[in-house]
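Late entry, zinc ion complex.
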Amino acid sequence: MGDCVFCDIVNGRIPSIRVYEDADFIALMDINPLTPGHLLIITRDHYGATLDVPDHILAKALPLAKKIAEAVLLGVGSPAFNILINNGPEAGQAVSHWHLHVVPRQNPQELPLPGGAPADLTKLPFTAAAIRENL
Ligand code: 5GP
Ligand code: ZN
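Prediction complete; structure with ligand written out below:
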């Protein structure tokens, strides 16, 4: 895939600090960490976002994230972590090659994640129905 920074990392054209690799994934340290120990699990093959990734690859991703997260928590001494996958630029995906963030956390205030607002209960059933129709 031309012009993809993560394909360049997979192929070794761009250096990376790796903690794990297998036939499907590479786990590497994020170059702009949100917290110390923030790393990325990226697919070896180029897929844009989660809807593009074959199910048999996705099925391996969460067990791997669990294994990596356990090591991250022990390695950096954090009690908690976020798993984050951005899908599409509107959702904050800057690199269009599938990746999962493991972000170790020390406290709930260190990242500016906004809370939600109470749902409008007159609209919520219709939103649910619109989703259900597409399943
Ligand atoms: P996104 O916003 O697409 O979900 O996250 C992309 C992530 O990739 C960001 O956290 C960013 O810091 C990281 N990143 C971008 N370019 C590089 C790079 O060349 N090397 C590494 N290790 N991480 C990168
Ligand atoms: Zn790529």
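The two ends are 32 Å apart (CA to CA). Will revisit in the morning.
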